[in-house]
UniProtKB/TrEMBL annotation:
Belongs to the short-chain dehydrogenases/reductases (SDR) family. InterPro entries: NAD(P)-bd_dom_sf, Sc_DH/Rdtase_CS, SDR_fam. This is Oxidoreductase DltE. Gene3D superfamilies: NAD(P)-binding Rossmann-like Domain. It comes from Aspergillus udagawae. The keyword Ribosomal protein does not apply. GO terms for molecular function: oxidoreductase activity. SUPFAM superfamilies: NAD(P)-binding Rossmann-fold domains. GO terms for biological process: secondary metabolite biosynthetic process. Keywords: NADP, Oxidoreductase.
Length: 266
């Protein structure tokens, strides 16, 4: 099955899984608009794939006030955009048994980048997509297996991804009778700079002599296979364990509550 969207805006495309997926989407025939903070890496992406297949915008998504003007600029420059893929994320240690180590600015930054910025981007792009009416469009969001099962060392990161996951479940339900498909990707731990010593010095680069997480290439292959198959929920690697077991029960309960409230007029 071919990827159904022709022009993809990918936020968080300068490194890691975002960069890998941006390249894979180009190779599957999409025009990709790469978005990130590091202009030099955006320029390299466009140079590699050519201006006939790629473009770029610079944006720091932690600056929420910049998002409305950014969306207006994208919509004006690319009126045929039909897919917004938000992949940005940061992860920091937050262990509350050591309260002296907790930096509240860092806590706020993590929530802003991992959750609030996704909501802000969707809010601004929604009128643009809804106006397309019969044209299929989509939002693709990268959450995490830690949205389903938290771990202790990065408790705030887990909370930010859980918030994102619950919001995505509701957004999909809100938009189910529109032209907008909502897709969620659940990565496991992947070998990217998200986990490198520069950003998380307390983490070892290897576990028992093996690299920490699955290779980016392996993650990209499974993710693209499921995107091409038309899945709207995409667990990858170890994320399949949680997703295919208790997460199914939780989503069944969610659908039951939705139906009950709908019948009650809510």
């Amino acid at each position: 099955m071919a990827f159904p969207y022709k022009k993809v805006l990918l936020v968080g495309a300068t490194s890691g899984i975002g960069r890998a997926l941006a390249g894979s989407l180009v190779e599957h025939g999409c025009f990709v608009i790469a978005v990130g903070r590091r202009q030099e890496l955006l320029d390299l992406f466009v140079e590699e794939y050519g201006a006939d297949r790629a473009a770029s915008f610079s944006l720091d998504i932690s600056k929420l006030d910049a998002i409305p003007d950014f969306v207006k600029s994208v919509a004006s420059s690319h009126p045929d955009l039909d897919c917004v893929f938000v992949n940005s994320g940061i992860q920091r240690r937050s262990v509350f048994s050591e309260p002296e180590s907790i930096d509240m600015n860092q806590i706020q930054d993590e929530m802003t980048v991992n959750y609030v910025s996704y909501v802000a981007l969707a809010k601004e792009f929604l009128p643009f997509f809804i106006a397309k009416r019969d044209t299929p469009t989509s939002f693709i969001f990268t959450s995490s297996n830690l949205a389903l099962v938290p771990i202790l060392r990065c408790s705030n990161y887990c909370a930010s991804k859980a918030a994102l996951h619950h919001w995505i479940l509701c957004l999909r339900e809100h938009l189910k009778n529109t032209n907008i498909k909502v897709i969620e990707i659940f990565p496991p731990i992947v070998q990217t700079e998200l986990h490198d010593p520069k950003h998380q010095p307390d983490m070892a680069e290897t576990v028992h002599g093996k690299p920490f997480g699955i290779p980016v290439k392996e993650f990209t292959k499974e993710t693209m296979e499921k995107l091409l198959a038309g899945d709207d929920q995409i667990p990858v690697g170890l994320s399949n364990i949680a997703f295919n077991s208790w997460e199914q029960q939780r989503q069944q309960a969610f659908r039951g509550v939705v139906e009950m409230m709908r019948k009650g007029g809510f």
